Amino acid sequence: MTAPYQKECMDMHLQTEQNRVFMADENQKIVAQVTFPAVKEGLVDINHTFVDESLRGQGVASQMMQAVAENLRRHHQKALLTCSYAVTWFEKHPEYADVKSPAEP
Fold it and tell me: Which one, of 66, 32, 59, 60, lies nearest residue 48 by Cα?
């Protein structure tokens, strides 16, 4: 498991755990999350992005996806993109192309 990573995001923290990046409110309710379960050694599947209605339009999903990409790069992992938001985000951020898996497992 990777060490938790936190980044200021409004008045909440963006946190990274093994196979997910998320934000929780003051009651510890998950209000935003990207999941990326392991497929095999060195390969994950970015399969889901969720942002609570109250946070939409504030760039939260993009911040989480960037944290995922940086985490994967730091750990020399590649990602399949089965989440439609992830596909769109990576198209708009070619600087993270090295994180995308070139083919299916």
Answer: 32
